[in-house]
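Supplementary notes for students who missed Thursday's class. We covered one full example, reproduced here. Read the sequence, then the structure, then the short commentary at the end.
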Amino acid sequence: MVLRAAFKGSRRKLVLAFDVGTTYSGISYSVLDPGQVPEIKGVTRFPAHEQIGGASKIPTVIYYDQDGKVRAVGAEAMQEGIYEQADEEQWVKAEWFKLHLRSQFAPGAGKEVSSNIHPLPPNKSVIDVFADYLAYLFECASSYIQGTHPSGVDLWASVQGQIDFVFSHPNGWEGAQQSQMRKAAVLGGLIPDTAAGHARLSFVTEGEASLHFAIYNGLPAGAMEKGDGVVIVDAGGGTVDVSSYSRNTTVASKEFFDEIAAPQCHFHGSVFVSINAHRFLENYLTESPFLDDIDHIVRCFDKTTKLRFRNADEPQYIKFGSTRDNDHNFNIRVGQLKLNGSDVAVFFEPSVNCVIMAVLEQRRTAHKPVSHVVLVGGFAASDYMFNKVYAALNPTGLNVMRPESHVIKAVSDGAISFYLDRFVRTRVSKLTYGTFCRTLYNPSLPEHRERSAKSFITPSGERRIDGAFDIILPKNTQISEAKEFKMSYWQESASKADFKNSSTSVWCYRGLIPEPRWMDVDTKNYTKLCTIDIDLSHAPVRECKKGDRGGTVFVLCYEIVLIFGLTELRAQVAWKDLKDVERRSESKIIYDPDTTSDSIQA
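Structure (token representation):
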């Protein structure tokens, strides 16, 4: 049994975790009192959900009017009569908007997703919609905590303006998506747009949050005690996030876990079962007068048939109308549409196969043997999904299981645990990271001779080639949180004024070459991760070279220090002062909103 330590802070704190899902969202929180062991609690009462005891999630839906004003959110947007009001007043619905924030490089995130997700409301960016939804969640958390805790109003007043936030996101999201979520948090009024405000928001992948949840809620004994590898599958509404960990058995005094395989993110969540159902029914009901009701029929499928489906050998029913709704030619009787169970199974098939193949890939590439698979998330509550995955993986020697309770709240509760416990201390790089540089020309190397036409002479007389890829961090490498990766740089110029500021870009290689070396090979698989702004005003400039034409050449040497092992990338610039003592300062990392599509053009 894992025991949480008492809070060591000197004053009360509140931490809120928002799990903004594709279809449903949840809030967990913890009040941290000095000397007390923190507890993880959930917001279980929302507007228009008061009549439902213990409702832990609300729909991720917003209605806007024609002026762009928010009119209904969450459970409010699903109340009886809302469809008629929205239709009469021409409101615009925003749903599945989380998928607009995706990285296009996650498997299946391209045209397949774009052609199926709902468009954003007119004149609204994804950051605008995210901000409105975050503001609503924050309001819900405020009302719940003030209304349910003893002296709740005083508690809220004591922490307001100092609240820490944790946002979870799919494994496939990168710094660009985190940057957009931070902008939404500022726009939504959760944090100020200052360095101190930004520091109050942290991020965790859904896979890592799910591990933290599982540690307290049913991680297999073998994974806890023996350090066996465990694959965590967070099957949600939009994505299936797959991560692998093992307990670090070298540290006996505390529970630490190492990530042992590069995490995966696939767009095969439960909404894609509904998309498959919609396609099937659109074709099936082509000649039926009920074709116009297809959106309503699919909503009914979502609420009942999809959740109850267990057996492909039994007929399935979608109850969508009244006793007067009949069309025997299309198996519609007394308001129920009858489908073959085998057809419904086909709706699930891509998602089921995705989970199975992803788990096997994790086991194949993991740095340690894997023996357990834990399924969490709303989609994991599907018995059909779980049983098919179990039937496929159990014969391979994997122990497949689901925690007994609250799998739907795994991510938000796990995000709070991430903030409090920080069990993961080693992570695995998903890609190969590096920079493009000007390497010294070596005529004895064939790859240099092939590019001799691209070589040039520097001011100090050296011959170099542009376009070499300098690998900082190879793919599938285990890295600790404290591990630093340093890149040495130099600049030379005939003028000291050129050395005040600089910038460099960090690039990812997403292809199959084990050790990518050149920009002009497999060009399309290089994409820019970010730009690092560097302040060089404090670094000393040295006069240590003579130019090839006789003048003085000034040289500035420095290092960029990158820390990849955290849940967010950090960057510093380091240099030696005139006494040869290393100095450092933090560097600003810039993610362009369109950075995920920024690639080299051949």
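Commentary. The first helix runs from residue 82 to 88. Confidence is low (pLDDT under 50) at residues 594-599. If anything here is unclear, bring it to office hours.
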